[in-house]
Write a structure and sequence with these properties.
The protein has 7 helices and 10 strands.
């Protein structure tokens, strides 16, 4: 079997700039991740992540959510588009859609997301401001498997940054994004190396069940 035949297929879903997408594109091109991104799909035609895909020679697909009357109808079309590429892994990289339970169940254990908080804290939106308003001393990001409940799947990896005095949400977000660009390709690599799995709603790395906050290098 050739090296190319061993590569996993990844489909990335984006809604915006796609900075984490770019980090994963770069890692694949550098051979750090044994995978090929076979498609980038967005719910927004103007998402810059689509241009990143085109620049890298990756098929860029738009499934516009405004063209569908219900979440379920949209998700059925999204599922149909994803299935064309037969991915081993689906990576959510700033995909600003709440996915239906039926959609998520189709890809149990095959879908990863990155969320800008130290889960289980601050699920949903505006996480940076919420951490500041709460007086937290640290903030960060979490990579987790996707399950039916929002931002609730088992955590694989977290990265923390201190919250400085008088720091605003925009400055904090920029520092968290730097961490995200390092974390996400690493977790994707683990999955594509068959080291990372989800079993019974738990994350396992190298056969060892991860703690609630995910992997920690002690």
């Amino acid at each position: 079997m050739s090296d190319a035949a061993k590569l996993k297929s990844i489909v990335v879903l984006v809604s915006g700039n796609g900075s984490n997408l770019q980090a994963i594109i770069d890692a694949c091109e550098q051979g750090k991740i044994p995978a090929k991104i076979t498609a980038v799909i967005s719910n927004k035609a103007q998402a810059y992540g689509l241009q990143r895909a085109k620049t890298a020679g990756i098929p860029a697909v738009v499934v516009d959510h405004t063209a569908y009357l219900t979440r379920e109808a949209y998700d059925q079309q999204l599922l149909a588009q994803i299935s064309k590429f037969a991915p081993d892994l689906i990576v959510l990289a700033g995909f600003m859609r709440i996915l239906s339970h039926e959609f998520v169940e189709n890809f149990q254990g095959q879908m990863l997301n990155i969320h800008p908080s130290l889960l289980p804290k601050y699920k949903g939106l505006h996480t940076h401001q919420r951490a500041i308003d709460a007086g937290d001393q640290e903030h960060g990001a979490s990579v987790h498997f996707v399950t039916a409940d929002l931002d609730d799947g088992p955590v694989v990896l977290q990265s923390k940054v201190p919250i400085f005095e008088n720091q605003d949400a925009e400055e904090l977000a920029e520092r968290v994004i730097v961490q995200e660009r390092q974390m996400y390709p690493l977790v994707v690599k683990w999955f594509c190396q068959d080291r990372l799995i989800m079993l019974n709603n738990k994350a396992f790395l190298d056969g060892i069940e991860l703690e609630e906050q995910g992997y920690a290098a002690n």
